From TrEMBL:
Alphabetized InterPro entries for the sequence: Acyl_CoA_acyltransferase, GNAT_dom
Residues in N-acetyltransferase domain copies: 95-190
Lineage: Eukaryota, Fungi, Dikarya, Ascomycota, Pezizomycotina
Protein name: Acyl-CoA N-acyltransferase
One Pfam family here: Acetyltransf_1
């Protein structure tokens, strides 16, 4: 059964990228993290100005993505504060960005896309990336009617490779020595998932849940 709120997952929420100073600052903070940049971006690693971020990465999110959202984590509930009353209200903290690439003109009938994701350093290794990827895959197949979703990883990022395989993405190919990073050549790996594979995965989860 689909979530009542399609823009929520178990612990996270998702909202559109806005033209606000707050979103500009958040997106730039991600682009300014050299480790995050190096593990998710194949362009030349160099200090990013805010203009670089707004004219490059943010423009790509706003114009070239089928879906681009800020990943949010609840940080506080009014009932946690002494003397508060009324319905619960959540305060959200931006912890990342996830997007699905939009195919170019004349290619929409292929119904395919690819994922990009960035999680801020303090919120890594908590399972938020896994949860966000599962959510965006669900959205892509269930809401957008995609047939295939891909994701890429650099060979020097074994954590990402293990994550994609654990989530059910199939290894599809390797571009040998396609990435120059930190004084050496590295491979670019592609993983993919088809809609029927995702449906089979959901059926297995449903059966497992009903048997427990």
């Amino acid at each position: 059964m689909a979530n009542i709120n399609p823009f929520r997952s178990r612990r996270l929420a998702y909202r559109a990228v806005e033209d606000t100073p707050e979103d500009d600052d958040f997106i730039h903070s991600i682009q300014s993290d050299p480790l995050s940049y190096a593990t998710s971006n194949s362009t030349l690693l160099k200090p990013q100005t805010k203009r670089d971020t707004l004219n490059g990465y943010k423009k790509h999110l706003m114009e070239d993505a089928l879906l681009a959202v800020i990943i949010l984590l609840p940080t506080q509930n009014v009932h946690d504060q002494p003397g508060t009353a009324g319905p619960p209200q959540e305060i959200w903290t931006s912890i990342g960005i996830i997007a699905l690439k939009k195919d170019g003109p004349g290619h929409g009938h292929h119904r395919k896309s690819s994922i990009s994701i960035d999680i801020t350093k303090p919120h890594q290794n908590h399972g938020y990336g896994s949860e966000a990827i599962e959510w965006v895959v669900d959205w892509g197949f269930r809401k957008a009617g995609l047939h295939r979703i891909a994701v890429e990883a650099f060979s020097y990022n074994p954590g990402a490779i293990r994550l994609y395989e654990r989530l059910g993405f199939q290894f599809e190919g390797r571009q040998r020595e396609a990435i120059w990073y930190d004084g050496d050549w590295h491979d670019l790996l592609t993983f993919g998932m088809l809609d029927r594979e995702w449906k089979e995965q959901q059926q297995k989860k449903s059966k497992k849940g009903s048997s427990e």
